[in-house]
Amino acid sequence: VKRTTDEQMLDHLKRFISYRTVSSDPKYKGDCRRGASYLRSVFKSFGAATDMLPTEDGSNPIILARFRGNPSTAATRKKVLFYGHYDVVAADNEQGKWITDPFVMEGIDGYLYGRGTSDNKGPIMAAIFACAELMSEQALGSDVIFLIEGEEESGSRGFANAVKQHKQTIGDVDWILLANSYWLDDSIPCVTYGLRGVIHATVQVESDHPDLHSGVDGSSQLDEPLKDLVMLLSTLTGTHGKVKIPSFYDPIPELSKEEEILYEDITQALVARNPDLGDPRDLALSLMRRWREASLTVHRFQTSGPANAAIIPRLAKAALSLRLVPNQEADTVGEALIKYLQSEFNKLGSHNRMTVTIDHQAEPWLGDFNNQIFQTLDKAIMDVWGPIPEVPQHRRKSSLAVSKENAFKVTIPKKEEVQNAHTSKPSPTTSSVLANGGPNNTSALSDVTNDAISLPLPQLSAKKPRTKPLYIREGGSIPAIRFLEKEFGAPAAHFPCGQASDSAHLDNERLRLTNLYKSKDIFKRVFRDLPMK
User: Which residue intervals are annotated with compositional bias (Polar residues) in the record (predicted)?
Assistant: First the structure.
């Protein structure tokens, strides 16, 4: 019996998931190589020309594959680059938290469970099978170039240099597409048009003396590295997390009217579906802070010497990160961070030494959601998903329901208004809250948000179905996307395949079977229709 393409796709995805392609652990290097080879064989089986691009320092290879469009369009056909990654974050079931073996894909209640189903092996397989079906129908009007790396979960080590080295082999690119994120909830398809960038850095303070005993050597005359480090880090941020590095916020643009409308659409859609999300003003504020505000986080400390309460460590270091937003250049911010920390350390008058190391950085990205690839993606999503009911039929009543005449405006406070505000901070709206709903959202004011928007309260009685996906930004970072845009001079668009409850990077990662099938159909429409634009 001949299997359908969907059945073949599930078979290939199941085997793809079985490879423990964990880039962060050297013991899985062989599995990463075998997973890459298997992926290459899938491309070959559907007629794609393939290559395995080596990366520096022994990092995992990049799979390059090309599906050539209909020969009749050879002179004019466009080229779409699909970026993805076959590596995954670590997963084990030693604590019994997974309901399945994380590397044995299983279908349960309409969901595919397994590490990588959502991030990013499922979307990759959907895109491959979209091309395969178009090839069999002789309907592929563009060349689709797949660039699938094996180090995304480890900062895309070696990716940029490998792409530059093999740029001629990759060839020209007209558009870039990736599918490496998720919806805001479990019901409304989304399109992502912005990501924050990131700088990961290590700050280290060390002395010339060895580890000491506080009872024997501790005194006010001794410059203790850990004390110096704590005082130094305390100078980086002020109240409400405001970063004190000079000119840090200067390049950040104000909220445009066009983007303001997108936030209005998001809050109306989400709160109407889930009143437990609370006040739409707080939701808008929280999303802006996570998506279009730069921030600084201190992740962990590490000290020398044994874990003894009496020890004065000779060395102390901290890992920190800065999330950047469009118009902030990673190189510029990194240099400013080093200069600022050195200046503040000098003020301590310490005999110790301080060093700052930039471990990794990625540029922020902001796409043009009015361009051809976004509009083609928008139409493909709605053609496949169809009109989406704005409010489910069975929903709890909410005190937020008001008449249109009584809708009120939401104003995000300006900087000067914040300085006199109260400092109590309710729990912020996190990704898990958006996925599961929750009553407590942040109404705390931010020192760095200085834009004002007007949002009418959602009309929960409305039953008009949605005819567009939600346009969203995200707070995370994907190192490759802005690099690829710059390198090939082509615009990128980001298509989230999964739902908010997919648990990517967590236990019980999953992807709804419906989302996998519909993502394939969406890719198919984009690869078919985009060259006609």
Answer: 420-445
Contact 451, 171 (CB under 8 A): no
Which residues in the chain show pLDDT less than 50?
1, 393-424, 426, 439-453, 456-461
According to the model, what pLDDT value does residue 404 have? 31
Q: How far apart are CA 320 and CA 69, in angstroms?
A: 46
Out of 87, 224, 282, 474, which one is annotated catalytic?
87
Is-catalytic flag, 152? yes
- What Rg, from alpha-carbon coordinates, does the chain have? 25
Does CATH place domain 5-180+478-532 in 3.40.50.2000?
no
Pick the CATH number of 195-364+412-469 from 3.40.50.720, 3.20.20.80, 1.10.3470.10, 3.30.70.360: 3.30.70.360
Tell me whether residue 186 is one of the annotated catalytic residues: no
Torsion over CA of 42, 43, 47 and 53, rounded to 10 degrees? -140
Q: Spell 399-427 as b/e; 16+ CB within 10 A means b.
A: ebebeeeeeeebebbeeeebeeeeeeeee
Q: Residue 294 has what pLDDT?
A: 97
429 within 8 A of 277, measured Cβ to Cβ: yes
Domain definitions of the chain by residue range: 5-180+478-532, 195-364+412-469
The pLDDT of residue 77 is 83
Q: Which residues are within 8 A (CB) of 121 and not within 5 positions of it... i.e. 6 or more apart?
A: 13, 16, 17, 86, 88
Catalytic residue among 133, 151, 152, 224: 152
CA distances from 275 to 187, 264, 335, 399, 441 (A): 15, 15, 44, 9, 12
pLDDT of residue 463: 61
Give the span between the Cα atoms of 43 and 128, in whole angstroms.
7
